[in-house]
Amino acid sequence: MRLAIFSDVHANLEALGAVVESYRHEHIDRHYCLGDVVGYGANPNECADIVRELADVTILGNHDAAVAGRMDYSYYYEAARQALDAHANTLTQENLNWLKGLPYKKMIEDADLLLCHGSPVRIEEFEYIFAPEQARECLPIFEQLGKLTVIGHSHLCKVFALRPGFVEELPPEDFTFDDNYKYIVSVGSVGQPRDYDNRASYTVFDTDAQRFEFKRVEYNIDLAAMKIFDSNLERNFGHRLFIGV
Questions:
Q1: What is the pLDDT of residues 143-161, one digit of tens each?
Q2: What are the C-alpha distances in Å from 60 to residues 25, 36, 50, 86, 239?
Q3: Which residues pair with 3 in a beta bridge?
Q4: What is the CATH number of domain 2-243?
Q5: For residue 193, which of 63, 166, 167, 244 is within the disulfide window of CB 3.0 to 4.6 Å?
Q6: How does pLDDT run across 1-35, given as a tens digit for each residue?
C-alpha cells in the first residue's frame, strides 16, 4: 500500500489544494491527516470540507481541539487566540461536530503505523518532538509504538530511529526501514512550514517497500497570504508563508 500522510493544513486552502493534486499522481491507497486542519489561515471551512472527504483517518490537533472546545487555549499568544476564536465562529456546525469527534491517536494495525499529532507520551498535552531528547521520552512506551509513528505539530520534517535504550536522529530525507529499529517521523506542515522552505510539505509511506518519502510542492502563496491580509487575522500569519517560518 501507498499511504498519504500529511499534517498541519492550518486553513491554507491553496497549499492543501496543491498537495491533494500532487497526491493524485502518487497512486495512493489511503490518506491520513495528523491534525491542525484549522488555525492561522483564511479558509477553515473549505479545508475541513476537503480533509473530511479525503482522509480515511484524521487525528485531533491542538488547534482543532481549541476550536472544538476540547482544550483551554487561554495561554496561547493573543493573535493565535484571536484566529482560533474567529475559526470557532466561522466553522459550520457540521465541521465543528467533526472536530469534536476526532481521536487523539490511531493505530493502523495492518501497516504497523501509529498516527498522532504530537508526542504519543501524554497524548492530550500535545507535546513536541523535534530533538533526540524529546524522542527519548518515548522509550518507556517503546512497545506501544508502531514500527512507524508519524506526528505533526512542530511543522518540521524530522526522523528518529529508536530501539530499546537508544535514539538516533537521521536526516529528514527518503529512507528504507531497518528491521532493527522503530521510527518516529515528523511530517512537516502543508499550510505553514517552519523549516525555511516555503513549499507545502507532505509525505508518502510505501508499506510494501518499507520506504518513507518526503515531498514538497509549490503553491500560490500570494493568494493564501492576501486572503489573510484582507481578513481580521494577524498579518504575520501571511508574511511568514513567504519565508517558511
A1: 999 999 999 999 999 999 9
A2: 27, 7, 16, 19, 26
A3: 30, 205
A4: 3.60.21.10
A5: 244
A6: 999 999 999 999 999 999 999 999 999 999 999 99
